[in-house]
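User: Quick sanity check before I run a bigger batch. Here is a single chain. Can you write out its predicted 3D structure?
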Amino acid sequence: MTLRRTSKSRAWLRELGERWKHWWRRLRGDDKEYVPDLIPLFERIDIVPVRTDLYLLAMRHRSCTITDEQGTKLNNERLEFLGDAVLEASVCTYLYHLHPTWDEGELSKCKSSLVSRPVNNEVGRRLHLERYLIMVPSALDNSVDIYGNTLEALIGAIYLDQGYARTQEFIREHIIPTYRDMRAHTVVSIQNFKSELIEWVQKHHLSHEFRLEEHSMEPHDLFTYTVWIDDKPVGRGSGSSKKRAQQEAARDTLELLKKAYTKLQEQED
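Assistant: Done. Predicted structure follows.
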């Protein structure tokens, strides 16, 4: 359902703002907790919330994790996990119906460009999500991916609060147009090295495995993966997310494998 921006709906949203502050202070047990005013965001994305707690949780970075009365840690990471899956499913559905003649490879390649960190970060910037984030001041400086991560958490909140159909509308209204704006840059800069590696090793009848070697969380998330080819370590890569680290490891592995294969061919000639 699309929100009609009437004076009555605006007044109701403002009233909700006061309720959020009361709810969040009760949860924390004090009156000093920062509570973002999400009304401008709701008006921007055209949503009348039902469960306001979900959206507040979506804005809570893990640097400001809190614990409820049951001892459960509260931050936006679980919503981010859910939103990532919903975003991918929605984009796959969109592409499936938009391009009925495309094969799996074409669909997968376009999906990888659409569901990408640069696109998600840009959508987060356009929605000015930094205005609503509950985080320590240095968190945004340490990782630009906070924009994309928060967007995925927001998608998770919309899905739980509004349902799948409304979430698809949000993605079509914000993700797809941003991707189109960035398309020239995206096609060049986002290459699915992991898919290329899988195709390469299958072509040459080799086994492969991505192994997580290290995960540090200070001052921000940094994952390091090693690619093992036929039970031997080859390439290595790091990134602020598992997906990015695996892509970097795949790129490094591809370069090393192709160099070794070319050298082997030269020796045989």
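The first strand starts at residue 66 and ends at 67.

User: Great, the batch can go ahead then.
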